[in-house]
Amino acid sequence: MNDDHVLVLDAVAKSYAGVLALAPTSFAIEKGEFLTLLGPSGSGKSTLLKLIAGFETPTSGAILLRSLDISGLSPAQRQLGMVFQSYSLFPHLTVAKNIEYGLKRRKWSAERRRARVAEMLAIVKLEHRANALPAELSGGQQQRVAVARALAYDPDVLLMDEPLGALDRTLRLEMESEIKRIHGQLGTTFIYVTHDQQEAMHLSTRIAIMNNSQVVALGRPDDLFRNPPNVFTAEFFSDATTVAAEVDDRTRFRFEAGGDGSWAAPAGTAPGRYTFGIRPRAARLGIVEGAPVLRGTITSSMLFGDEVRLFIDADVVSGLRVVIPSRANTFAPGDRVDVSIPWEDAILLPNAPVTSRAFHAGATR
Ligand SMILES: Nc1ncnc2c1ncn2[C@@H]1O[C@H](COP(=O)(O)OP(=O)(O)OP(=O)(O)O)[C@@H](O)[C@H]1O
């Protein structure tokens, strides 16, 4: 435990009628972090956020806020800011009054309230809409009011549960940069829930990846993306195709399903069975000296503006995805191609079972 830790989860767990919603989870969040809980539906993100917020009580373990055990406190007693997907603004109150609401409840003087509301309106760039009612605002503007209201009294932590889920793509991207700017400007600790990998990557200083009611990886977005610690993270976060492989005593690497090729594994690779992960942008079409190669047939392609995503049935794995620049796309379905994965961009995971103990040891360092 260190003084910079705002929030500490100490083996916190939750079951509903004996069914596990969150396995014992331990990690600490530092002041000013933007931590995102990222995982597919049902992975336990909302359960963990509700435990932190105080809407649920842990079955076991504890939650410490600034070294104080808050596990038994009500949401109001925890004094955390909260923003949800449904903006839950007071419809009959103006923007300014919505922002002021929590300050009044906390008995701030009228003068302090006025100054803080003005400051928050400026931070979310809604000075010109101070007297509007929520119904007169766009979805993005309403979400800004919700953010301003939640941050007005300067909580230790702001919790956000899929706050951009109801917005269209363009507005979502705009709001992402707004949220990032506000986080940088205020330095408040943010904990954010989403199932969207891109959103998590754009916003977070660290990401906790969840699957099957567990945090399975925790780290900086760029580290997790390039060096996922397990197969789930490689597939879910790094968008990798995974293939079974092995390294023999002479450090020769080969794919388990294909006999013809073998390549020198990176120096220091121990003999054993591995999962080899191929990110769509790590793969190159053609032969790259020294790099493992898969042979395959293009089955289809999909245009993403400047880039094209090719789908390839390779000899050792089907449904391999490779992204190339659109201008380089001279390929058609049915073409045979070689796909090389340079070692520096490849993912190589030893096939050791991932235990939650091993994860916890790494996570609380
Ligand atoms: N009130 C509850 N009663 C019983 N089971 C629950 C309850 N809340 C959650 N669960 C179960 O706990 C697990 C984790 O759910 P949780 O809602 O935390 O996942 P999530 O990652 O937030 O999913 P989503 O993105 O769909 O909201 C799921 O298996 C879910 O069915």
From TrEMBL:
GO CC aspect terms: ATP-binding cassette (ABC) transporter complex
Zinc found in the keyword field: no
Pfam families, per the entry: ABC_tran, TOBE_2
InterPro entries named in the record: AAA+_ATPase, ABC_SmlMolc_Importer, ABC_transporter-like_ATP-bd, ABC_transporter-like_CS, Mo/tungstate-bd_C_term_dom, P-loop_NTPase, Transp-assoc_OB_typ2
Taxonomic superkingdom: Bacteria
Ranges for domain ABC transporter: 7-237
UniProt cross-references to PANTHER family, sorted A to Z: SPERMIDINE/PUTRESCINE IMPORT ATP-BINDING PROTEIN POTA, THIAMINE IMPORT ATP-BINDING PROTEIN THIQ
Protein name according to UniProt: Polyamine-transporting ATPase
Provenance organism: Acrocarpospora macrocephala
